[in-house]
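Below is a filled-in request sheet from our internal design queue. Each sheet records the structural input a requester submitted and the sequence that came back. We keep these sheets so that new team members can see what a complete request looks like end to end.

REQUESTER: design group, bay 2
PRIORITY: normal
MODE: inverse folding
CHAIN LENGTH: 123
BACKBONE (tokenized):
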């Protein structure tokens, strides 16, 4: 399989938009895992400490942040180049990358501040 040539600005724009869409999907799944059991009366997110929810939140944050950073960097690098015929993809990658990074950071901060592990009853 031939790897894409990242020296071409068209390729950078296309890969930027792909990473941007992947980052949006990761951020939406992160929002689902963080905000689904939010108790607005007590402003707390409860979770079972023995479940895989905490590693999933950390992993989705890392994946979204990395995808957003790559999308933003590749979109910014290819934006405005004369040989780039896909300027819209550069804009999509750069804008979605910025929104994904900010959204992932806000959701991760929400998780860190509001999450509390549930106490299990014995017997």
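RETURNED SEQUENCE:
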């Amino acid at each position: 399989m031939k790897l894409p040539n990242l020296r071409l600005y068209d390729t950078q724009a296309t890969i930027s938009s792909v990473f941007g869409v992947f980052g949006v999907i990761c951020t939406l799944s992160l929002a689902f895992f963080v905000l689904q059991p939010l108790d607005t009366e007590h402003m707390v997110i409860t979770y079972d400490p023995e479940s895989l929810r905490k590693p999933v939140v950390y992993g989705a944050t890392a994946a979204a942040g990395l995808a957003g950073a790559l999308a933003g960097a590749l979109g910014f690098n290819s934006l405005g180049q004369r040989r780039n015929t896909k300027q819209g993809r550069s804009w999509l990658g750069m804008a979605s990358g910025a929104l994904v990074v900010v959204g992932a950071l806000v959701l991760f901060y929400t998780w860190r501040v509001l999450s509390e592990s549930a106490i299990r009853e014995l017997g």
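SHEET NOTES:
- The beta strands are 38-39, 44-47, 115-117.
- The helical segments are 9-35, 53-78, 87-114.
FILED BY: M.R.
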